[in-house]
Amino acid sequence: MRQLITRLKNFRGAMLWDFITAIVLFLFMIWNLDRFEGNVTRLSLIILTTGFLVLMVAVKYHLLYKHFGRDDVTGGKDKKEFERVAGKMLRSDAGYVLVYANIDRFKLINEIYGNSVGDQILHQIHGIIDAELGWDEVSGRIMADNFGILMHFHSLPKLDERLARISKQMEELVDENGNRYGIALYYGVYVINDKDIEVSTMLEHANLARRKISPGYRVPMGIYDEKDKFRLGREKELEMKMHESLERGDFIPYLQPKYELEGETVAGAEALVRWVDSEEGMIFPNEFIPLFESNGFVVDIDLYMFEQVCRMVERWGRAGWRTIPVSVNLSRSHFNVPNFFDAYEAILERYEIPPRSIEIELTESLFYNDMEALNTLVTKIHRAGLSCSIDDFGSGFSSLNVLKEVQVDALKLDRVFFVSDNSQENERGKSVIQSVIQLAQALDLHTISEGVEERDQVEFLKQMKCDLIQGYVFAKPMPVTEFEKLAFGGVH
Q1: Cα distances (Å, whole numbers) of residue 64 to 4, 35, 68
Q2: Residue ranges of the domains in the chain?
Q3: One-character DSSP codes across 37-90
Q4: Burial of 448 (0-12, 13-18, 19+ CB in 10 A)
Q5: Radius of gyration (Cα) for the chain, nearest Å?
Q6: CA distance 368 to 182
Q7: Fold of the CATH domain 245-488
Q8: Would you list the DSSP string of 208-257?
Q9: What is the DSSP string of 182-205?
């Protein structure tokens, strides 16, 4: 908007200046007409001068008009122009779909390569998208690393095919040394049934769909449906009060115990956030965590939870209670913030925490991109007196490579190995668990099995010599006071 206002001001100023210039030239010509003999000569001079002025103004404003609605980075259409052109195309009888495309972790590319390289990449991406489109389709940069695409719609498989072609070309973009940038696009899709609604509203729908990426397609793609309309309203409601709720302390830690298997006693806990709103009561994580991960507020929540756990562990120490390690989660959104662990270290300086009494849980998906950066992070975690584990271990495809590269302290086995209804799959899952536990023991790593709900699973894990168990078979997440009664015998 600021850019548009600036252009309009410049446009108005240019018009005024050109008008004054034209008047001066015309008056100068009239003043000097007497110097020319013959009416034909004088008439020719008037026509030539007027023609020159008209041509000058026409060329200039044609060039100015070409720049209206243009994105300075990509050279394509900006949001306003995209919405205008898309709205015009939607007047036809053709079937269309609106796609909201987001570049995954583009901030990291800017941090590594610099903003100028980032702008070049955005320009290339615009070119790739535009090359896929026909004359009656359009794209534009909506904001930052987000693009809007209006495409003809025939079927979801056909759309999947077209978006796959775009994604494949993105993946092949390389830097000056021939190394791939690792660019991935996430798509939100709104199939247009009602052409009367504003294009800006369609973009909101498509963006909402992007946040619920669905499996089953070759590219990460979410499809908008009518249920999302209510979800959008709910998300806006939560966003309006999330900052105030954080300031009030409405976000509180719940602790889910971890049990050692020999004596089945409490030997640890995982801190999980709960939102207790003053008006509507408990708001569960499955409702707000995906939203916070999408809008970046999860970074604030993670830091807040970390400080709550630090304060809690310090209080336990002053009470003379035994040290029980507590784990906290670290969202991948932190990696969009340079030197983000400095904030954790600043919090640690305010509390007296026994060594290795707090554990940072990193999800396995974090280890796919930059192993060197993650090794640096793990080193910082250890220097700060904390331990580190890999959460959801076994849910990805690079698990063994992670163990080879990163010096973590523990593995949390993903619950996926226990949730199948197929007995054959369950047996295969047990075989995998057995192998992972044996490997962890050889590497001197602790193992925690999460999501354990059945007694026979407990007995199996005992046989495998798994170190800790976390799951409903023993206890659900509970308020801190309840956990303290369970772990410390109610001594306060």
Answers
A1: 12, 37, 7
A2: 2-67, 79-225, 245-488
A3: -SHHHHHHHHHHHHHHHHHHHHHHHHHHHHHTTB-TTTSSB-HHHHHHHHHHHT
A4: buried
A5: 31
A6: 11
A7: TIM Barrel (3.20.20)
A8: HHHTT-BSSSSS-EEE--THHHHHHHHHHHHHHHHHHHHHHT-EEEEEEE
A9: ---EEEEEEE-S-TTS-HHHHHHH
Element (H, E) at 14: helix 2-31
Q: Which residues pair with 326 in a beta bridge?
A: 269, 358
Which positions ≥6 away from 399 have C-beta within 8 Å? 364, 393, 436
Selection from 417, 482, 436 nearest residue 266 by Cα = 482
How would you classify residue 216: left for phi > 0, otherwise alpha for psi between -120 and 50, otherwise beta?
Answer: left
Pairing of strands 468-470, 251-260: antiparallel
User: Is residue 199 a contact partner of residue 83, using CB atoms and an 8 Å limit?
Assistant: yes
The pLDDT tens digits for 328-349 are 998 877 876 778 899 999 999 9
407: CB partners within 8 A, 6+ apart: 375, 378, 379, 382
Residues 6+ apart with CB under 8 A from 232: 204, 205, 208
Residue type (1 letter), 65? Y
From 38-47, 240-249, 264-273, 305-314, the region with the lowest mean pLDDT: 38-47
CATH of span 79-225: 3.30.70.270
Collapsing DSSP to helix, strand or coil, 336 comes out as helix
pLDDT in tens, 346-370: 999 999 999 999 999 987 666 555 6
Under a CB-based contact definition with an 8 Å cutoff, are residues 180 and 171 in contact?
Answer: yes
Question: How do 387-393 and 185-191 pair as beta strands?
Answer: unpaired
Report pTM.
Answer: 0.62
Find tokens 């998906």 and name the residue: 365
DSSP state of 108: H
Name the strands in the sheet holding 96-103, side by side, starting at the edge strand that comes first in the sequence: 138-143, 146-152, 96-103, 185-191, 221-223
Measured between alpha carbons, how far is 155 from 157 in angstroms, rounded to an integer?
6
> How many angstroms separate the CA atoms of 209 and 196, rounded?
20
Sequence-distant contacts of 314-321: CB under 8 A, at least 24 apart: 314/351, 314/352, 314/353, 316/484, 316/488, 317/352, 317/353, 317/354, 319/491, 319/492, 321/484, 321/487, 321/488, 321/491
